[in-house]
Amino acid sequence: MQDSNIRSILRDAAAPALLVVAAILSAGCTTAPASATIPASPVQASATVRTPAEPTNPPPALEASPTALPCFSREDLAAMALADIAALPQICFLSSDGIETDIDQAHAIEAIDEFLQGRAGALGFREITRMGNSPDGSLRVARFEDEVGRSFLVAVAANRVLEMDPGLSAPSVRVNGQRLPAEELQALAEELITRELPEFPDLRPRLSSTGGVKSGDLYFFRYEYPEGGPWAGLPPLAQVGLTADGQVFSYLNTLYFVV
């Protein structure tokens, strides 16, 4: 999708939550719930009483009509192995509020793999959820999970990674990793944001920036939009977390709302 379309979709997301839902996740499916099992066997002709005048050849069996794939709930997917979920190119998800959403999993995984620059492992869709760190606080996004427990929040219509969380996997410097100076780490953070949002260099002078380090090895670089707006949650911002040797372990970017 072109960047102009991405900006349009995510700018509309700053409107009331119902408009965000319509813009970001409008595709639905008409499948049965996951608990329903639809038989795929052909319909058999019922037996009839025949008279000598009737033809002796039985009528052909009716062909089975195509069946729809079931929709999965959050609980269904939580009970499935990640490899089994990852094998499905398309998934229909049934939210707790009754909304059914078609997820093009293959397309979304391509976006995550591109974000990680080809370093993604096994990935699988887990749920549709609300992005608490979005400016309106309720943007509906698709959450994917990888084999080490990292979560990726993807804007479905834009097919763009908005957030990556390390989950329970504690990031650490590699055994032979070279610790980089803070200035070099900040340059890597800004390079990542610019790769995902080419307008970032033009937007940069309008942003307030902060940085910090935790436990001596975990660095954070944050760029926040300071001007007022109709934000019910956090203001639009970008934040990147890197280990001292330059590994990206967390990411958040909602600056799309203001470009």
Please describe what this structure looks like.
This protein is of the alpha+beta class and 259 residues long. The chain has 2 domains: 1-33 and 70-169, no CATH class; 175-259, no CATH class. It is 22% helix and 25% strand. The protein contains 7 helices and 10 strands. The protein has an 8-stranded antiparallel beta sheet with strand order 3-4-5-6-10-9-8-7.
Can you describe this structure in just a few lines?
This protein has 259 residues and is α+β, with helices and mostly antiparallel strands. Helix content is 22%, strand content 25%. The chain folds into two domains: 1-33 and 70-169, no CATH class; 175-259, no CATH class.
Helices and strands, with pairings:
Blueprint: H1 3-12, H2 17-24, H3 74-78, H4 82-86, E1 90-94, E2 100-104, H5 105-115, E3 123-131, E4 139-146, E5 151-155, E6 160-165, H6 182-196, H7 200-203, E7 208-214, E8 218-224, E9 237-243, E10 248-253
Antiparallel strand pairs: 1-2, 3-4, 4-5, 5-6, 6-10, 7-8, 8-9, 9-10
Provide tags for this entry:
single chain; 259 residues; 2 domains
Biggest sheet: strands, sense, closure? 8 strands, antiparallel
What structural class do helix, strand and pairing data support?
A: alpha+beta
Number of strands: 10
Overall average residue pLDDT: 78
Overall number of structural domains: 2
Low-confidence blocks of residues = 9-56, 58-67
Residue fraction in strands = 25-35%
Distance from first to last alpha carbon: 16 Å
What is the percent of helical residues? 10-25%
Shape, principal axes of CA atoms = globular
Task: Return Rg in Å.
Answer: 24 Å
Biggest sheet: strands side by side, in what order?
3-4-5-6-10-9-8-7
Instruction: Please work out how many helical segments DSSP would assign.
Output: 7
Listing every helix as H and every strand as E from the N terminus to the C terminus, the arrangement reads HHHHEEHEEEEHHEEEE
